[in-house]
Amino acid sequence: MWQVAGYRQVRELGSGASGRVVHAVHEASGTAVAIKYIAPQLLADSAFRERFRAEARLLAGLSGANVVRCYDYVEDGAGAAIVMELVDGVTLRRMLDQYGPMPPEAALLLLKGSLLGLQSAHTQGVVHRDYKPANVMVRGSGETVLTDFGIAVPAGATVTAEGTPAYLAPEQWHGVPASPSADVYAATVVCFECLTGQRPYPESDLDTLSRAHATAPIPVQAVPEPVRGLVAAGLAKDPAMRPGSASGFLAELESVAKRTYGTDWEATGRKTLAGLAGALAAFFPAALALGSGSESVSGAATAAPDPVGATGTQVASPATPPAGPEVLGSAGTKVATAAAKKGLLAKVLASKAALIGASAVAVGAIVTGAVLVGNSGSESPPAQPGSGGVERTEPTGAPGPSGENGPSKTDGNGPGPKPTEETARPKTATAEPSPASDATPEGDSGQRCEVTEYPDGSREKKCYSN
């Protein structure tokens, strides 16, 4: 199987119809990266290859702390690949599935980070077109990163209806020219989901969902009163009535947040996100690599984190990777959400600590709401990674497994369904009575147990005193 020269593969992070994403290490610098490989069958599709190159050229100018960075693009007769930043974190999709709604400060900080990422695109005349929780990564520090620009186009381009239906603006269903206001709409849908735990229009049938986006009343009563104006503006049916770009929405968001939740609203929101992300640190790429016990993993993804997308700037003079541990999470963080969240956070911290195990201890420590792991250098690009005889430009987003929120109308990354869901999310049965030989059944004075099943067939059981 073709691989980019100069990189050692660590493990596969995810795969989809358009290709696969692997965690790799640049041999010369030791920098951890993510590499997206295009599916071999798509190399023979001249239209797909041209679209891929066009996306690369389109995205070459994007930059910013809230957009995942690109280090290199490699193409030759044997394959094509994108070398990009390895974001050590989890997707917002996983976080929402695990915890449900979050406090307003955290939801608004997520929206702000996403708007900053979209602003980087909008100022370059690029529309993302597929903003959704699976395309937002949350680092252990609580910062957010926008990924997967796989179907991004220049603003004003005439396009077919593409994207993830649950987050499509009304006009996107009809293939009107792409505009930044459609990204604003999608970001507001995600903010609504963060605030309430559900989307404003949860219908699953595509025709019903399309009509709901176009004509159904905006359910602003479901969100806290201080932010209803923001939600109503972002979800306006008429794109002319929405903020015209991410920049226009940012100022209003910050004004409402500061006025309602105080000048420290960002710090409060970041602590919450750091605590929630830190509790899921077992799914971070760094933790998985430490516990893998193998330098090369091929085939289907196992208990892997969510694949990352790709955008950012073309790297002309890469920096030296930083050294030393990086704090993931926030010590002593209080998760200021529903009462159930505190208990859940404690349980998750206890159970996930066992998954990280001695490998994490070797380079750091787990404390209350905080995880210390060795920094593999993912915050800086490789030192002149390169590859002889290759074209260098900017890539598209990374593939992921299919299935989030129903199928996209068309594939944003070539033939076949567009990857939309994160990989290898475990199934967790909470408070499951354990066998009598292991623990007392629920309701007695003994223990309550949580059993987690992983895609590789392994099971983890943790018991707690009643």
From TrEMBL:
Keywords: ATP-binding, Kinase, Nucleotide-binding, Transferase. InterPro entries: Kinase-like_dom_sf (IPR011009), Prot_kinase_dom (IPR000719), Protein_kinase_ATP_BS (IPR017441), Ser/Thr_kinase_AS (IPR008271). It comes from the Bacteria. One of its GO terms (molecular function) is protein serine/threonine kinase activity. PROSITE patterns: PROTEIN_KINASE_ATP, PROTEIN_KINASE_DOM, PROTEIN_KINASE_ST. The keyword Cytoplasm does not apply. Pfam families: Pkinase. The keyword Metal-binding does not apply. Residues 445-466 have a biased composition (Basic and acidic residues). ATP binds at K36. Residues 7-256 form the Protein kinase domain. Residues 296-327, 375-466 are annotated as: Disordered. This is Serine/threonine-protein kinase. The lineage of its organism: Bacteria, Bacillati, Actinomycetota, Actinomycetes, Pseudonocardiales.
